[in-house]
Amino acid sequence: MDSEPTSSEPSQLDKEIASLRKQAAASLRKALRIQCSTILSSASTSRLIRSSSSPAVARRPGSSETASSKLSSRSTQQQAHMQQCIYRISAPVTSFKVRDPDPNAVDDGHVLGLRFEIMSRGQFLRPYYVMLNRPYPGSKHLRVHRHTVPPAVPLAGLAARHLPQPSRAGGSSSSTDQDLDKFVRTLRREIVRYHNRLGVSADLRRRLGLHERGGRAVAPNALVEAGIADIEAKQISLTWANDKTGRLIMDDDGNVVKFVVFGRDGRDWEASGAVFDKNDSIEDVARKLEERLEESILEEQEG
After folding, report:
1. Which spans in the chain are helix H?
2. 278: alpha, beta or left, given left = phi > 0 and alpha = psi -120 to 50?
3. pLDDT at 272
4. How many degrees, rounded to 5, is the angle at CA 30 between CA 28 and CA 34?
């Protein structure tokens, strides 16, 4: 009867070792790519590669034409990638014209497209698109035709505020004047705010080690889960191993405005006050959660 746990222990240990090796290899490959990109992005490296790729150097005895051409090609790709990144950073919103292939499309199928660039954790995300057309006869007023904006962003409300429909009477009124520039700026700000709030949840999980815990054993009072609790990403739900739950509430910019903890007997005012004070940032909340976990572990060991 004692042989079954013994036989399963090496298997579990082998799985953990294999998982750690896989994580280490992925981390090293990522670091290698970053270092290579950094070296190739250097101006001095580019000059050295161009000089080594010259015909005079290529004709020298012992020179490797294949390695030199590969390095030159990789440098060219890196320069193109840098140029693209610079453009996407300097022009976060771009406009373009497309044609609706539908033969029954309004305004002869003319569509104005808006492309919104978003960056998170040093990487560009998939752009968001908003398509506008002019469905009102005899009017230049725009209307949102199609979009890929996430539901958490109040696109309909922004369009109603900054791109109102023309008056039915057909007369010009200041209440129906459209401000496309303000609509674009406000919409991009809301998209950035949304991703900032998503980043707060990800940073909290990373700070508390929840993203890499896996199936490992945890302390009885450890925080075991933290995730977005609503579609607008303004609330983060927290769960402890002792069945306590919490809710962290943020404003539009991702600043913490409220934190509550609930236990088996209702709201835990002591825990809520110990973790969150007025004007605390998400870093302060994460630090206090870590301190409470360390204190509970020490108390358990002493007991």
Report:
1. 3-41, 43-52, 55-58, 65-90, 155-162, 180-207, 269-275, 282-302
2. beta
3. 84
4. 115
